[in-house]
Design goal:
Helices cover 42% and strands 16% of the residues. By secondary structure, the chain is α/β, with parallel strands linked by helices. It has a single domain, classed as Rossmann fold (3-Layer(aba) Sandwich), CATH 3.40.50.
Length: 244
Amino acid sequence: MHHETFGSPGTRPLLLLHGGGVAGWMWDPMRRHLDPARRIIIPDLPGHGRSATADYVSHEETVAGLVALLEQEGEAATVVGFSLGAQLAVLLAARRPDLVGDAVVISAQAEPMRAAGPTLALLRLTAGLARNPRFARLQARELFIPDELLPRYLETSAALSRTTLLRAVGENLRFTTPPAWRAHPGSALVLVGANEKPLMHRSAELLSRVHPRATLDVVAECGHGIPLQQPAALAARLEESLSA
């Protein structure tokens, strides 16, 4: 799994997990507003970006790879995940609470989609559209990709394999909140955009309800794209919690 690191090891790390169909570059706008000395780890998840040479297999295998990254740090991390990455953040906190001090869960689906089968069947038929530049540009608007990152999104989208797309989306649609999430001893900040779908709001409420130290925040004027729509505000929130 390709990853970039910033700052000096030995300090509390911040692990940033991107969503499906993008890559670690999605955190660039927010990272500009973080303390430049802060220890930051940004992977490209399997099948995405510079990790596109190996297809996405499962959340379980990806979590195992992320555990290996965190075990090298020597200190529990704050793990921030968006969408697909948010599900991974929840799993990491549930499976290895010794490695995850605090979790920030942004726009995570936490209840299975009832129509997952038909949705995946349609995706199998249309998966090739991800490589179509015109379609990718339309998708970029839906994901709130800024113009400066559009070339990187088009490059990532073109390299996304059909296998990765189907596996990552399938894992996302079937995701359920792990029972051990309620036993995570750290804090959890659960964010959802005010303009997101009802399923996402129900998921955010579920994740915050079952975690004993969770805070739920509905972010005004945002859809499914909080890190790209409000990067400065999100960075300020992270800095505040990391300094506490």
